[in-house]
Amino acid sequence: MSQNSSRSAKHNQSVIIYICAAGIFMLGMSYAGVPLYRMFCQATGLGGKAVQGHDIDKVEKMTAVKDRILKIRFNADVASSMRWNFKPLQSEVKVLAGETALAFYTATNPSDKPVIGISTYNVVPFEAGQYFNKIQCFCFEEQRLNPHEKVDMPVFFYIDPEFVDDPKLEHVDTIILSYTFFEAKEGMKLPVPNFMAA
């Protein structure tokens, strides 16, 4: 009987260790999942993420597709814990595929304390994300606003001319660029894909 109870105790202990290890692994993957997914989406343009990085020669030599006007709408959100006021300065702009455009968002810290924010973005419809190229933006970088400070933040972008040749997007004339700001801890860095690092 003693030998059976000893085996049973070891078996129970092993099961508990495996369950704890699996729980710790799943917790770790839940924290790593968001940055890994973000890097994947930025690299591939899937999941509605705009493609970061661009070929300067391509931008300089690109010609606009004049027979297709696209409406780019802008959206701004803040996480529930974020104390900023954040909004686009224009609700939409009209651009041609192959034409660069500039838009601005504004953020205000109405609190009496400095607040550091960091933003993420997405593009809807998701299929358009691979053609939405941002030359300059404020995403994935810490933005510190002092008490009652207000800043305008530019987004310089273009829609790749190949957009007009994609049969999945033949009836799409409106694209939404949406940013969400989250409060960040001082020194917090989001992982940046290698192709974005300068």
Automatic annotation (TrEMBL):
Alphabetized UniProt keyword annotations: Membrane, Transmembrane, Transmembrane helix
Gene3D superfamilies hit by this protein: Ctag/Cox11 (2.60.370.10)
One cellular-component annotation, GO: mitochondrial inner membrane
Subcellular location: Mitochondrion inner membrane
Transmembrane regions: 15-34
Subcellular location, principal: mitochondrion
UniProt-listed InterPro entries: CtaG/Cox11_dom_sf, Cyt_c_oxidase_assmbl_CtaG
GO molecular function: copper ion binding
Topology of this chain in the membrane: Single-pass membrane protein
Pfam families the record matches: CtaG_Cox11 (PF04442)
Highest taxon of source: Eukaryota
First and last residue of the signal peptide: none
Complex and partners: Interacts with CNNM4/ACDP4. Interacts with RANBP2.
HAMAP family: CtaG
Function: Exerts its effect at some terminal stage of cytochrome c oxidase synthesis, probably by being involved in the insertion of the copper B into subunit I.
UniProt protein name: Cytochrome c oxidase assembly protein COX11, mitochondrial
High-level lineage: Eukaryota, Metazoa, Spiralia, Lophotrochozoa, Mollusca
